[in-house]
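User: two proteins, same treatment. go.

Assistant:
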Amino acid sequence: MVSVAGLILLSPLLLLAAIAVVLEDGPPVLFQQKRIGRGGKAFHLVKFRSMCTRVSSRSITSSGDPRVTRVGRILRKYKLDELPQLWNVVRGEMSLVGPRPEIPRFVSLNDPVWRAVLQLKPGVTDLASLVYRNEEELLGRSNHPEAYYQEVILPAKLALNVHYAQTRSFWSDIKLICLTIRYSLFPSGFEPARVLRSFPRIASDSGDR
């Protein structure tokens, strides 16, 4: 199983990240949050904790957010905080590639677009989250980050998820995983338009933003 092998191979890195989290801000190491998966079924997504233990319940994080620890900023920059989700994959709640699962209050089960997206198993990475890799930076420029997320970013992500599902193949999933690894290791080279151009059929439909 790929996810089990990934956990084993990455165990030294996972251990170092866990130690760093504890040394800066104490336990717990992991953060769990309810998300909506395939068919509208809720599950608990696992991440390395990147915020202080005493934080507000605000669900949107923007660049410069004071709740994020120093270690957390590094983990988030390189997407290392997402690695524990391989456990969600092992449990069958997620796949490596699929729409990123949302928190319940952002999901509308009556919306036909949401219904289409929720037919798919959620994933650790997807085209939408890769295109919006700089989401926190975009939210940091807005005076109303949560409203901007719900009204601008989330609809665009859903549209990309639907487009990707319609053109998806084994090789497109492999390409997406490779791009995710590339931009996690070298985030400074990230360009949303370049990512979209890697998927020509989707880029033409979305206007190559």
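Protein 2:
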Amino acid sequence: MAPLAVYVHTPFCPTKCGYCDFNSFAMSGPIQGRVSSAIEREIAASPARGTPAKSIFFGGGTPTYLSASQLTSLLRATLAAHPPTDECEITSEANPGTADADKFAAMRGAGFNRLSLGAQSFRDDDLARLGRVHRASEIERAVTLARDAGFQNLNLDLMFALPGQTVADWRSNLERAFELGTEHLSLYCLTLEPNTPFSKEHRAGRLTLPEEEHQVEMYDLAVDLASEAGYLQYEISNFAKPGFECRHNLAYWRCGQYAGYGPGAVGRLGLPQGPTRYTNLKHPQAYAEAVERGERLWCESEALTEENLRMEKILLGLRLDEGLDSQGLDLSEDALRSLEERTWIRRTEGQIQLTRAGKHFCNEVALALC
């Protein structure tokens, strides 16, 4: 099997943020060690064991909420099952509030070579409203500690269109991020996911977000300022200094294979029965118990048909600045012409790329082509 991407999900957080719909739990204590051990056992028994890893990504949750020994042990188990390729990118997400010099040094020594810091905002009032456990001053401290530990590849996550946020506030956040000089930036518009506290507050009229025109202005401002600061936009929400594009996420967007380990992790593997997408049991305790009993971990699985794969290629490929390879997709010429007339796409040598305007309508373009 060709090298694949590996995702390890650690579901624990100090608190559950009001906007978050990820599979995360505000849990601590013995359950963390129990689940970490269970993940190691899952990895060791994986049908993908022995396949080299071209990227490894520890996400969550908050991986750095685990102890240094738990994190490094998990990475050793992952590397034992998936020998890294020569240029394997090994990332861990980290909350600035859990940044620790000794932990970062241990992680770097174990083989992690990239950190993704969940900054979200440089304004303390934003962070408090979002339910984040860190303060703005801790973001710069986390970057310094990461550099001191030897990390030369850092990402910052920032969010825009926050409650009460102005375009000027967003500009200030971007400028602070550029000053820190991380190699990568992920810039996401706040989305109200169903059944989250933020969604419920919004429906009740207690949460006001910027108007859509201001959201568009914030996004366009980010694209312009990031370019001026030397970042290349290679995906709708992602910007990198040359050569620092996130290899792990590119594997997703290019529809590569990936193994997912841990509670709620999703994987996409070419199994003997055909391409399959699966999701693990989501609750940490249920997951750990299933591993300990040798029971099936998948709570969902789907055999991917040719049509599934075609739609996935369109939905994900359009997000990339390199564009969608249209070879063999049998796309409607009428739909393509209509999208060109609206100046949402351009076609060049078998590639379909979103225009600057089209990036605001990525989902609409994908639906028109699917």
